[in-house]
Specification:
heterodimer, A: about 120 residues, mainly beta, seven-stranded mixed beta sheet, four-stranded antiparallel beta sheet, about 50% strand, B: about 110 residues, six-stranded mixed beta sheet, three-stranded antiparallel beta sheet, about 0% helix
Chain lengths: ~120, ~110
């Protein structure tokens, strides 16, 4: 396991944008898939996005965010990002950064503490 | 897209055995992972790859899969086991790489 730290959450108006960051130690950004999982208040866990290891050529998104959110990473900064645009009230959630152990099995072995995004006018 | 089905709630008395199920088409052919989430806390893996137990997780926790159902078994349930439990698989259909979570089961210890 590794210690992941998210930042960038906050209050944003509907239609606005926000960029989340996750500090990823060591070589995890190169060696592992990484992803974002969110949890709306009182609800369950929902997959948001994943990015492949190495150069991050493969990116995938949950149906509810595809076309609005973009996952990326910067290995020189040891950081994972989630750019969120056209935000809606239903995007309000805690966003967790996760490390995905096993590109064919998808085990989320490490979770950050989460960052809260609130979309409200 | 792939769907995982969990019962919303399970109740068990202390010292008894809790069996939490996770249904999915041919789930036995996938690797299933389980996470425990206590109120206000971050999800914690308790079972990975069907039956693996992460370091620090008691032996009371075990996992199994068969055909269309995966099961998380908690033996000798304690009050501290009360939490939400989520199953998860990795959907690689159509060259995708996305996590699929069940809706979660709230375990209540009577």
């Amino acid at each position: 396991q590794v210690h992941l730290v998210e930042s960038g959450g906050g209050l944003v108006r509907p239609g606005g944008s926000l960029r989340l960051s996750c500090a990823v130690p060591g070589s995890s950004l190169v060696d592992y898939f990484m992803g974002w999982v969110r949890q709306a208040p009182g609800k369950g866990l929902e997959f948001v996005a994943s990015i492949s290891h190495s150069r991050g050529a493969n990116k995938d998104y949950g149906d509810s965010v595809r076309g609005r959110f973009t996952v990326s990473k910067d290995t020189t900064e040891n950081s994972l990002f989630l750019q969120m645009t056209s935000l809606r009230a239903e995007d309000t959630a805690i966003y967790y950064c996760v490390r995905i152990y096993g590109h064919s099995t998808g085990y989320c072995d490490s979770w950050g503490q989460g960052t809260l995004v609130t979309v409200s006018s | 897209s792939y769907v995982l089905t969990q019962p919303p709630s399970v109740s068990v008395a202390p010292g008894q055995t809790a069996r939490l199920t996770c249904g999915g088409t041919k789930i036995g052919s996938k690797s299933v992972h389980w996470y425990q989430q206590k109120p206000g806390q971050v999800p914690v893996p308790v079972i990975h790859h069907d039956s693996g137990r992460p370091s620090g997780i008691p032996e009371r926790f075990s996992g199994s899969t068969a055909a269309d159902t995966a099961t998380l078994t908690i033996n000798r349930v304690e009050a501290g086991d009360e939490a939400d439990y989520y199953c998860q698989v990795w959907d690689t259909a159509d060259d995708l790489h996305s996590a699929v979570f069940g809706g979660g089961t709230r375990l209540s210890v009577l």
